[in-house]
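Before drawing any conclusions, I needed to go through one protein's amino acid sequence and its backbone structure tokens, quoted below without any editing.
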Amino acid sequence: MSFETILIVASAALLGLLILSQAVLRAWHGWLELKRLELDRARPGGDASAASRIDLADLRERLRNLEAIAAGVDL
């Protein structure tokens, strides 16, 4: 085998390895993003946290009103 042939084969192998590593890296990042989304959905304070905070604030206000009534304070 001549030097040029070895150089061409080595360059092609290196290019193939580069393409393969880029594809694997992109797949890895996609998998990590998928797991991040799954963890965010599994978290109890996910997208519904705003609604639950509003409900909690409403319950706290009702509790303050009931405590004020029990204490005999006019609102």
